[in-house]
Specification:
The protein is built from four helices and three strands, in the order αβααββα. With 111 residues, the protein is an alpha+beta fold.
């Protein structure tokens, strides 16, 4: 099981969800599994984390939702909007800035 630090993960689910959905539309559980797979099990977000993020992003206009029938079951697929792509770019820039700063700090400590 992956270890997580809730305080450190603040804002990360939004970034991960938008990043995955920038490639193609996906449904909630597919996102949960993809986050775990792409991160090599380093990040495991429960459905109870991902679904509220999806709903919040949809309300803010960053995602659009579409119901599809799959195997006689309705699934809600999410896709990034143009506004969502702008939000993703801003989040990615901020992540790069912060991670660069942390990497520089770690290099200083261990040089």
């Amino acid at each position: 099981m992956a270890k997580t630090n809730p305080a450190f993960m603040s804002g990360v689910p939004e970034l991960l969800v938008l990043r995955l959905l920038s490639g193609r539309e996906m449904y909630g559980y597919e996102l949960v599994r993809s986050i775990q797979l792409v991160s090599n099990n380093a990040i495991a977000l429960a459905e109870g984390v991902v679904y509220p993020v999806l709903h919040s992003l949809e309300v803010q206009g960053f995602l659009r939702a579409k119901r599809k029938m799959v195997n006689n079951r309705a699934r809600v697929y999410y896709a990034v909007t143009a506004k969502g792509r702008k939000r993703l770019n801003a989040l990615m820039s901020e992540w790069e800035r912060v991670s660069s700063g942390i990497n520089a700090f770690m290099g200083e400590l261990y040089a």
